[in-house]
Amino acid sequence: MGHFDFGMVGLGVMGRNLLLNMADHDFSVAGLDLDAEKAASLEKEADAKHDIKGTTDAKEFIQLLKKPRAIMLLVPAGKPVDSVINSLLPYLEEGDIMVDGGNSYFEDTNRRVKELNAKGINYFGMGISGGEKGARFGPSMMPGGNENAYDRLRPIFEAVAAKVNGEPCVTYLGSSSAGNYVKMVHNGIEYAIMQLIAETYDVLKRGFNFEDDELQQVFESWNQGELQSYLVEITAAILKKDDDITGKRLVSLISDTAKSKGTGKWTSQNAMDIQAPVPSIDLAVNMRDISKYKEERVQASKTYTWNGDAKDLSNENVTALFKDAFYFAMVTIYAQGMAQLTIASKEFDYGLNLEEVAKIWRGGCIIRAAVLEDFRNAYKANKELPNLLLDKNLAKGLNKHQKAMREVVKIGIDKGIPMSVYGVTLSYFDAYRSETLPTNLIQAQRDYFGAHTYERIDKEGIFHTEW
Question: 40 near 105, Cβ under 8 Å?
Fold first, then answer.
């Protein structure tokens, strides 16, 4: 009793795998779950050398842990988190640490931090990326909370995190809900890049009649160079998988009505609240929403037809064109997400270090990619960089691939194939690089119908005109 290094509440796949990962690194761990079978199976699954204990009793669970106690919750976001907190509070003491490892909304974390700090409990919100395999063998972890209390967690988290060049993919990110916010934006970037990949797949398949094997080879080859990333890697694996029943490629038999858990929507909603433009993420969320209206889409497809076509290109030239455009879009999507983090850090006083964020995203997580090393170097060179598009080294690559991006967007228009994220990403880029935008006219319109006033470029002050 009282000697276990770490406790986990929720012994589903993620919680169990993370505990086993900790045990592999010689930490003694205890798990709590109301399901007796899950609690018992934890010990059965562990090696004989592991010091690991499962229980269904909250009081016993707390008594197993050394002080100050370090406890992680891996339960569904929302009310279940509050329920678990309330069930543990009677047994906790001042200085104990509780870590929410789920995808909780950052404002919920802010509330819990405030409530638990008043009771002397250190509360952390921590994003975890990498899925069940990552949890077992090395995830990317994004903790935010009390910096002093993090010293109790640091040795455990650094041991179990994914490693890139020997560096652990975890670091203290900032105060209060910083960890949950970073994970939220991580998921928004994930939405946009997944949609980008889907659009690439769609236009190559429908627009240029690429066969299944050709498509698979495209993504497999892309994963060997500057586009190397987890999402491109798994796309190549998905496109290779045959259905056991029909022998057809499994992906062609999967419904095109997409699901989501809301984290992409949260990213867009808060981005609008803090005036951080992330149109590529917004459109990715919208495309999942559009996919749900299957019956209407079927009807519309019979009403509206388009027989246009783009210029003929060889498969080799098409692949090269899309490779360059994909790089351009991918970097610009990351730039939007990282810019949102920069704005949010000031808005919520997180104190985020974007170089560290890029560093811990390089391994273990869903959006890990080779370009993150370039982003890390950009923030290392300029910690105050407001947007990755302003980094001169990245600008060289974007300028090099800019023409391909424009050609690809034209192809989508000519062929009548939706390429929403490609299109809006280019529009974001063009808006960001525009010294002058037509919003002067919008300011005049607002003043005309609502007397909202405007500013002038030739003198100081606030003005109103009787139009």
Answer: no
Is the Cβ–Cβ distance between 81 and 102 less than 8 Å? yes
pLDDT digits (tens, 9 = 90+) for 432-457: 999 999 999 999 999 999 999 999 99
Query: In terms of residues, how long is the chain?
Result: 467
* Structure tokens given for 184: 């939220």
Going along the chain from its start, the domains and CATH numbers come out as 6-176 (3.40.50.720), 183-432 (1.10.1040.10), 438-467 (1.20.5.320)
Bond before 68 cis per omega within 30 degrees? yes
411: its two tokens = 């192809």
Say whether pTM exceeds 0.90.
Answer: yes
Q: Is 190 a catalytic residue?
A: yes
Radius of gyration of the chain (CA): 25
Rounded Cα distance between 335 and 359, Å, is: 15
Q: Which member of 190, 233, 355, 356 is catalytic?
A: 190
Catalytic choice (38, 183, 323, 359): 183
pLDDT confidence tier of residue 1, bands split at 50, 70 and 90? low
Judge whether 366 and 130 are in contact, CB under 8 Å: yes
Does the annotation mark 183 as catalytic? yes
d(CA 59, CA 329): 52
φ, ψ of residue 460 to 5 degrees: the values are -75, 155
Q: Would you say 282 and 337 are in contact if contact means Cβ atoms under 8 Å apart?
A: no
Quick check: 314 pLDDT over 70?
yes
Neighbours of 275 (CB within 10 A): 9
Per residue in 206-221, pLDDT tens? 999 999 999 999 999 9
Q: How far is CA 133 from CA 124, 265, 290, 364, in A?
A: 23, 26, 31, 9
Question: Rounded to an integer, what is the distance from CA 49 to the centroid of its chain?
Answer: 36
